Amino acid sequence: MKKIIILFVISGFLLFLISAKEIKNKTLINKNTDSFKNICNYKDELKYRYLNYYKKHKELPKEKIVTYVNIGLDKKFYTITAPTPHLNKDYILVNKYLYLNNDYVPNNLVNLDNKYSKNGIKLVKSAKDMFEKMYNDAIKDGYKIRIMSSYRSYDYQTYLYNKYKKEDGIKEADMCSARPGYSEHQTGLCIDIDDGKTSYEQFNQSPSYIWMINNSYKYGYIERYPKGKENITGYKYEPWHYRYVGIDIAKFIHDNKITFDEYYSKYIK
Ligand SMILES: [Zn+2]
After folding, report:
1. Helix axes 62-71, 47-56, angle to 10 degrees
2. pLDDT, tens only, 34-48
3. Are residues 169 and 259 in the same domain?
């Protein structure tokens, strides 16, 4: 009888210790997640992911933790994916987390005049009109820009990605080419450009590149995969690739030196 009482007391004490620890842990988690709650783009359903990412990246301010986790950066590229919303909007986002279906073709795709590009290139009308304006103003300033590639269908992207994968392996292909459905080129809102003299890969050495960096935002275009932001965009630096997002968003991104992925996480619902 005595033994039973002792056992009972001990197990009661152990249960008390366990629940006290649980309460302490919960309080600690709540206290830590509470510190994210005032951040404008905080999402309650992601609070544990914020906390886990913060444990690994204590050097980052909490605003960045929230933005990066909202983008999906706490998970590997292509591991948590969803169809992208805001189809046919200038602010549609396509990256390594948000994709377009294989039958998506943007509305208002129009042909570009040969004056501005290689033959048979298509762009969404809003992006085309602003490109033409930008092109003509660049010429007035003494600089040339020319479109080498713009809208690409899902099927063409499949062909391109498989080609890179075969030539360079999957790791290298993923850094320079998008998997089918994940290419921004399928939106019809982005362009690869050169200056008509040197290869597009050396566009950053062209005076036209400096003109673009200083002026493209005035026409709604941003450098989409900038140097030093590879960990956010998931792509190597691509000085030739510009994305049309509209003038207001482009100006904000330019002035704040952020990526479109970060802007979208913060301001697009
Ligand atoms: Zn491109």
Report:
1. 120
2. 889 999 999 999 999
3. yes
Residue span of the structural domain in which 59 resides:
2-71
Ligand 1 centroid distance, CA of 66 (Å): 28
Distance CA 175, CA 161 (A): 11
| Nearest residue to 268 (alpha-carbon basis) of 115, 126, 97, 90 | 90
Cα of 222 to ligand 1 centre, how many Å? 12
In the reported structure, the alpha carbon of residue 193 is separated from the centroid of ligand 1 by a whole-number distance in angstroms of 8
For ligand 1, the distance from its centroid to the CA atom of residue 187, given in whole angstroms, is 11
pLDDT value for 9: 66
User: Do 157 and 261 fall into the same domain?
Assistant: yes
Query: Using 50, 70 and 90 to split pLDDT, how confident is the model at 246?
Result: very high
For residue 191, report the distance from its CA to the centre of ligand 1, in Å. 6
Q: How far is the CA of 177 from the centre of ligand 1 (A)?
A: 9
CA 221 to chain centre: 15
Mean pLDDT, all residues of the chain: 91
Distance from residue 161's CA to the centre of ligand 1 (Å): 13
Give residue 59's identity as a one-letter amino acid code. E
Q: Which of these three, 41, 71, 101, is where a domain ends?
A: 71
Listed residue (163, 187, 182, 183) closest to 173, CA to CA: 163
Q: Tell me the C-alpha to C-alpha distance, in Å, between residue 140 and each of 77, 192, 208, 211, 266.
A: 42, 21, 12, 12, 36
Per-residue pLDDT tens for 250-266?
A: 999 999 999 999 999 99
Return d(Cα 135, Cα 133) in angstroms, integer.
5
According to DSSP, the residues that pair with 99 across neighbouring strands are 83
40 and 101: one domain? Answer: no
Distance 65 CA to ligand 1 centre (A): 28
